[in-house]
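Late entry, adenosine-5'-diphosphate complex.
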Amino acid sequence: MIETEGLTKFYGPLAAIRDVTFHIERGEVVGFLGPNGAGKSTTIRILTCYMPATAGSARIDGTDCFEQSLEVRRKVGYLPENVPLYLDLTVRRFLRFAAGVKGINGKDQEGEISRVIGICGLEKVSHRILGHLSKGYRQRVGLAQALLNSPPVLILDEPTIGLDPAQIVEIRKLIHELREEHTILLSSHVLPEVAQLCDRVLIINKGQIVATDTPGNLTAQLQKSAQIVLQVDGDAAGLAPALESLEGVQRVSFRENQHGRFWIETDRSRELRPEIARLVVDRRLDLLELKLVDLSLEEIFMQLVTEEPSQEESET
Ligand code: ADP
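Prediction complete; structure with ligand written out below:
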């Protein structure tokens, strides 16, 4: 339903995205996850025909985003990160305007507007002025305009950014209900949101897709190894190589400015904490903390997108 091949976009000399390839099937709800500046909005702007790519191709429901952009726009409901609302219009007038832009006119218009007002729970505020509504309600109006004409694909860019917790719950519930009728690409830098709403996650970092899987599989994949956090007090020079030499230790990360804290990745089938404790004590260091951490998707994400310098690198 949404396909990209080798999508690349340069802003001047800067590659905002490079060789981005993914396929989203009809009916899937896919999270597009990455830190700020990773390239999510750039990819979305290309998919929604707001700008062309430098190289590669993108298709929505088989229609080329560059060559048949008008048709693509009819197939995609887009909720941008900042919804451009006319704040002095009422909800219903704004939706009339948005419907007109989408070519919904005449006798179909009022019925279609009432339909999206119903889906988004806007009945009570339909005659109020947008400028007087809470941010949560404005976001619902943004969703309502995206739903006009029932497009098969919805692209939602950071749909809950800037909302308060109660509003976040409501918007997520609404998105959850929309999954029945639409293929959804949801961009977010909020991991619990993606884990909660999506069948699959695409993780983008520095303009490239670094992982794609279900939230559950991503967790399982990384849980083959165990993570141990160690904190010591004293002269910890040389401790990282000693930890690395223990059988079963896969990787040790240590940062100068983290108050003697080490992040140790080990083989999950081995219990290495007693050995690590002995090593610390033998080196006459004080043991402040030694614990096994369970990886949440949030921590997995941090692993995927941050390169923790090893001891050698942090010393140079
Ligand atoms: P995200 O949506 O994941 O935060 P963006 O797609 O907005 O990421 O940005 C990707 C990269 O492209 C960033 O390095 C950003 O600074 C850069 N960038 C985005 N838009 C522009 C632009 N209009 N001109 C120049 N650089 C841009």
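The pocket of adenosine-5'-diphosphate is lined by residues 11, 14, 16, 34, 36-42 (CB under 6 Å). Will revisit in the morning.
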